[in-house]
Amino acid sequence: MEKLETLIQELYQEGTREKNMEVLSHIRKLAKEEKQFIIPVGDANGEKVYRRLSLDDGQDVFVAFTTQAQVDLGQTTETLNQSVMDVLHMVHDTQGVSGVVLNPWKDSYFLPKVLIEMILDNKNLESEIKVVKGDITTFDGDCIVNAANESLLGGGGVDGAIHRAAGPMLLEECKLLNGCHTGQAKITKVYDLKVKYVIHTVGPIYSGQHEDEHMLRDCYWNSLTLARKNDIHTIAFPAISTGVYGYPIDKAAVVAVDTVKEFIREHPGKIELVRFVLFSADVLAAYEKVIGERTIL
Ligand code: AR6
């Protein structure tokens, strides 16, 4: 519960959608872990009822506290402990109530019914990871990732396909970037492509050494970091290094899937969709196998 209070305070300072998503994700986690809120109760005709606050717009809201210290900031009231999940369901199911205010006396957070629905439905809070066979240049989300080389001046494979689809202006912009080290990532505009950005990353040339895995992991991690910074919510990756650079597909699929999952776990809320767009049936099969074997997030 202290963590929830900290996240709400951070939301006050930062005010970002991302932080709000973190708060919602955390509330859902508390609900799943069967944690409890403290609820103020009063008497109505001899029966215990949850206290409500009336808002200016005529709607009522329920009240819940994360800790006793928060309760003690207001007037003394009788309380009881109620599981987070039960509180969410109660607010959701009560007509004339528009949501629940957490900690109304200090650093309060209003959770409206629509967000409670999202928490209960698991909708939009968890990022989706999908695999599909296809050509990455046709992806119509926010961003595609290019498996480039250190010069960033184009090449064959997926790099060639992306430059062909984007048109010659992409190369002109890439010339200004001064190359890119293996494992790092740089972002450009897209010109004739449908997406908003291309992130260029350079996979390792497979050598069988331990560093290969670290560098391939860096490609996914640094691309997703750059995506977050640029407000990218949907992103497609090719199977980096598995073509000309010779990385064994099975091994590369494990690194790709594990790194993306770990990133999403550490940064909930921001990235809504990661799609692995794979050019051939054997690569698709390798990714599907890994995703099937790994428990979801
Ligand atoms: N969409 C999705 N995946 C594709 C596409 C496409 N249009 N075309 C190929 N692939 P590669 P690398 C797959 O060789 O191994 C370039 O010349 C392909 O089947 O493109 O990281 C660069 O300039 C394979 O599974 O990239 C570098 O010099 C995967 O994309 C070098 O190749 C990656 O194959 C980088 O080698």
**Spatial ordering of strands, largest sheet:** 8-13-12-9-11-10
In the predicted model, the low-confidence regions spanning at least 5 consecutive residues are: none
SSE ordering: HHEEEEHEHEEHEEHHEEHEHEH
Residues in helix, %: 40-55%
Q: Biggest sheet: strands, sense, closure?
A: 6 strands, mixed
Any idea what the radius of gyration is? 24 Å
Mean pLDDT: 93
Give a list of the ligands.
Answer: ligand AR6
Strand content: 15-25%
Count of strand segments? 13
Name the structural class.
alpha/beta
Span from first to last CA?
A: 22 Å
Q: What is the number of helices?
A: 10
Any idea what the shape is?
A: elongated
Word description of this protein:
By secondary structure, the chain is of the alpha/beta class. Helix content is 41%, strand content 23%. The protein has helices spanning 2-14, 17-32, 68-71, 84-93, 113-121, 157-166, 168-175, 210-229, 249-266, 281-293; strands spanning 36-44, 47-50, 52-54, 60-64, 78-83, 97-102, 109-112, 128-133, 143-148, 185-188, 197-202, 234-237, 273-278. It has a six-stranded mixed β-sheet, with helices on both faces. A four-stranded mixed β-sheet has the order 3-4-6-7. Strands 2-1-5 form a three-stranded antiparallel β-sheet. Helix 1 (2-14) runs antiparallel to helix 2, helix 2 packs across helix 4 (84-93) and helix 4 crosses helix 5. The chain starts with a helix and ends with a helix. The mean pLDDT is 93. Residues 135-137, 147-149, 155-159, 161, 203, 238-245, 277, 279-280, 283 line the site of ligand AR6. Ligand AR6 is lined by residues 135-137, 147-149, 155-159, 161, 203, 238-245, 277, 279-280, 283.
